Amino acid sequence: MKIERLQTIVTCPGRNFVTVKITTSDGVHGLGDATLNGRELAVRAYLEEHVFPCLVGRDPRDIEDIWQYLYRGAYWRRGPVTMTAIAAIDMALWDILGKLAGMPVYRLLGGRSRAGLMVYGHANGRDHEEAVDEVRRHVEAGYQAVRVQSGVPGLDKVYGVGPAAGFYEPAQKGLPPEERWDTALYLRHTPELFRKVREAVGPDVHLLHDAHHRLTPIEAGRLGKDLEPYRLFWLEDPTPAENQESFRLIRQHTTTPLAVGEVFNSVWDCKDLIREQLIDYIRSTLVHAGGITHLRRIADYAALYQVRTGFHGATDLSPVCMAAAVNFGLWAPNFGIQELMPHSALTDAVFPHAYRFDKGFLVMDDEVPGLGVEIDEALAAQHPYERAYLPVARLRDGAMWNW
Ligand code: CS2
Ligand code: MG
Q: Which of 39, 58, 162, 281 shows its CA 20 to 30 Å from the CA of 121?
């Protein structure tokens, strides 16, 4: 059995997705998500120009050797483009292996550790009142965990808040929109938001918040401490994590659990955070951190230090990645929680899949071989790529900041 054909399928059913399709000499195909929000065509070029020619004729079942070949053989190791490309190949090969074995990928990993994956939804409001209403709506819809983001008085636009309650798609067509940021205003208003939310929904709903890389370590420690009365499930991306030791300072000041990692692309980005137990959840995801093969290593390393998974699951991760995440989460003994920003009906039509939302959990009932996701190539072709960028943030004085 050989890898016979490798393709990238770029489609934009409301937002851009890049999908790898690998077809074997036996006619079995597998899919992998290769979407890197705002840099989609860089990954496509890396795959088509530098990866695909090296894989034709290889045995698709040699998943580990192909992973090592693409990682060590690149010489220029790591980085989001390289590791997203490797991830897509890896997911597609696991999909093929599952189809060959006639079983879902979670069975190849070691079977079910749980019936379903607890998910958290996104309650976004332009002001506190709208955010509280959105939390209530999610609780009524069955969510047991809700991430809460709101506008900040004095700031026009804030990460996580769209033009209307609920919906939020950060990537914008055209050139990167510029947003103004003011940490002092954010630090003043955020604890009040959670006081109101906790008052509205009571103590049992898991509440999460994403600081989205915007604070310094001491500011993150202060916010974590100010949020302690509201007992968050986690405070996410409190500060940029290139300097992993900066989390020591945050940890000194707060017991609010910390989650980080959606922008990480290998275990080397989080090894010290995990080993020193500076975080509680690792968010690295299958599409940006080397696929199932590498995330298994990260999850097992994290388990040694009682760090749980909390995979990224925004709308720029396609249903292919989400299907892989559900398989992974059904198996992973140290699964923590899975982010779920539901895709649009059109995206779900382009990527029919076996996972589904059920009372606050993602479940996969049928024993669908492989990842349990497909792509409707004809429908995908009706929605061509449209360049789009994530916003950038500047401070009030105009200096670039972290979006
Ligand atoms: C966010 C994402 O879901 C999250 O936690 O950080 O919305 C992130 O901004 C986007 O995935 C970036 O493409
Ligand atoms: Mg985030």
A: 39
- Are 204 and 332 members of one domain? yes
CA max distance for the chain? 61
Helix, strand, coil percentages for the chain (3-state, nearest 5): 40, 20, 40
Indicate the top mutation candidate among 33, 149, 209, 212 to test ligand 1's pocket, ranked by most ligand atoms within 8 A of CB.
212
Ligand nearest to C-alpha 337: 1
Q: Is 392 in the pocket of ligand 1 (CB under 6 A)?
A: no
Tally the domains of the chain.
2
Rounded distance from Cα 333 to ligand 2 centre (Å): 23
Task: Supply 133's token pair.
Answer: 């209403």
pLDDT at 223 over 90: yes
CATH number where 44 lies: 3.30.390.10
Residue nearest to atom 1 of ligand 1 (CA): 314
Mean of all residue pLDDT scores within the chain: 97
Q: Where does 151-283 show beta strands of DSSP type E?
A: 172-173, 178-181, 206-210, 234-236, 258-260, 281-282
Residue 306 structural domain: 109-367
In the reported structure, the alpha carbon of residue 49 is separated from the centroid of ligand 2 by a whole-number distance in angstroms of 31
Q: What is the mean pLDDT of residues 64-83?
A: 98
| Ligand 1 centroid from CA 377, angstroms | 26
Instruction: Single out the residue in 104, 133, 167 at which a domain terminates.
Output: 104
Yes or no: say if 320 and 351 are a contact pair by the CB < 8 Å rule: yes
pLDDT one-digit tens code per residue, 326-369: 999 999 999 999 999 999 999 999 999 999 999 999 999 889 99
